[in-house]
Amino acid sequence: MSIVVVEDVRKRFGANEVLKGVSLDVDRGQVVALLGRSGSGKSTLLRCLNGLEVIDGGRIEIAGHAMDYHPGKLRELRMDVGMVFQSFNLFPHLSVAENIMLAPGIVKGSTKRDNRALAEKVLDRIGLLDKIDAYPDSLSGGQQQRVAIARSMAMQPKVMLFDEVTSALDPELTEEVLAVIEDLATDGMTMLLVTHEMGFARRVANTVVFMHEGKVWESGDAAALFQGARTPELRQFLGSTLK
Amino acid sequence: MIRPFGVDEILFLLQSAGWTLVLTLAASLLGGALGLAIALARVADNPVARELARGYIAVLQGVPVLMVLFLSYYGLSHAGIELPPIVAASLSLSIYASAYLGDIWRGAIQSVPRQQWEASASLALSRAQQYRYVILPQSVKIALPPTVGFLVQLVKNTSIVSIVSVVELTRAGQLVNNVTFQPFKVFVTVALIYFAICYPLSRVSRRLEGSFSVHRSG
Q1: Which residues of B touch A83 (CB under 8 A)?
Q2: Interchain contact B111–A (C-beta under 8 A)
């Protein structure tokens, strides 16, 4: 059963049409790698999925919510859809625990004690329990990104969106973040990832969506696509990124 | 009769300095509340609110506070609304402060990166919750030094209300001088009292600039 349905979605910034009728179906538990050159619209598509960008046409349904930009409706949708960003975006004035506990506390109204237990649980899972009372600026980029993932996990979303989450990291810090995502994938989390890590996409994703010029150019089973791309554009893209 | 500049005169100056503090406090509190509303309107989604706030700030920053004072004292009384001088003075200073504080705080709010809005929105926070828990706490740290700096200016600018016969520190200095004819002693004393109020504030402001950064260390 589809948990994400994207139908003929269009998005333009001024005169520049970034999404030119994108359609996509994602099943529960699927891990989808969104690939494509910069400017192909993949990050915009991801941002449309949780309403950070308002679409100009088409239809989006995600985690049982039809896209509706009414603030209250949008909040309901976002309670079920987590997002992790390239630049981590932790709240610098809050400790790691407070970063994680903030949204469950005020949005879901959980008690402080439950929240602390929740923070401990998600931090233990990503291997950063010892940093629970640290502040973001004392953490490495990789650790900050792991905390950002934990913060999103704490809302217990049904779908998680990852927007180039390792692009701002040094190569030696990338692995620790990918390991956390892989762990989530193994656990059955539905995920859509915009990524440039081809090795990782190959290892973790079961579906690949290749975007080109604002359209889904080619998509399908990850293993099959990496073996033999049908379109010359994807072949060329894979050729230039998989050395 | 010429009186000496003695203990009584100094006590009178100190007492009047109390009114200077009252005016400063009233303008800070009322002006602060109004200023926050102006700042929030200035960054609101609603373009009408944004433009109104922009116009409010532009007009009040481009007009001497003295004109605001004349309008709220003489102007209103001409229209049949008699405000006691201290009320007219407090209101005028509050309006003046609200425009400057509103502009300082608008800048502080806007200096919080857009990504903080996106991250908190993605966690299903409402607009009010975003302000309350994410944006304003970070803005406060940015805004604190210029805010305290402005309050120092405000203390000194309260002197202009002497013109509508509110006996605050400057007016008291004039009155004492009129009966003692000791301008040097009197106004040096007045200046020292202003300094004693403002200098600690300036020091606090400088301390805040040094010790506050947006990124708090644990």
Answers
A1: 119, 122
A2: no
Q: Does the CB of B217 have a partner CB in chain A at under 8 Å?
A: yes
User: Does B125 sit within 8 Å of A106, measured CB to CB?
Assistant: yes
Mean pLDDT score of chain A: 93
By the 8 A CB rule, do A8 and A22 touch? yes
Q: Do A78 and B122 touch (CB under 8 A)?
A: yes
Cβ–Cβ below 8 Å for B124 and A107: yes
- Domains (range + CATH), chain A: 2-90+158-241 (3.40.50.300)
What is the distance between the alpha carbons of residues B94 and A6, in angstroms, rounded to a whole number?
53
Q: Residues with Cβ < 8 Å from A36, sequence gap 6 or more?
A: A42, A210, A211, A212, A217, A237
- Are B118 and A85 a contacting pair at CB < 8 A? yes
What are the tokens at B27? Answer: 């303008």
Nearest residue to A238 (alpha-carbon basis) of A6, A35, A15: A35
Picking from A224, A143, A130, A206, the residue whose alpha carbon sits closest to that of residue A180 is A143
Domain annotation for chain B: domains and CATH numbers: 7-211 (1.10.3720.10)
What integer best gives the mean pLDDT of chain B? 91
Angle at Cα B45 formed by Cα B41 and Cα B50, nearest 5°? 40
Interchain CB distance below 8 Å, B138 and A78: no
Among B116, B124, B129, the residue with its CB nearest the CB of A89 is: B116
pLDDT tens digit sequence for A194-242: 998 888 898 899 999 999 999 999 999 998 998 888 899 999 998 887 5
Report the amino acid identity of residue A111.
Answer: T
Q: Is the pLDDT of residue B213 over 70?
A: no
| Cβ contacts of A107 on chain B, cutoff 8 Å | 123-125, 129
Task: Tell me how far apart the alpha carbons of residues A39 and A41 are, in angstroms, rounded to a whole number.
Answer: 5
Check: CB of residue B54 under 8 Å from CB of residue B42. Answer: yes
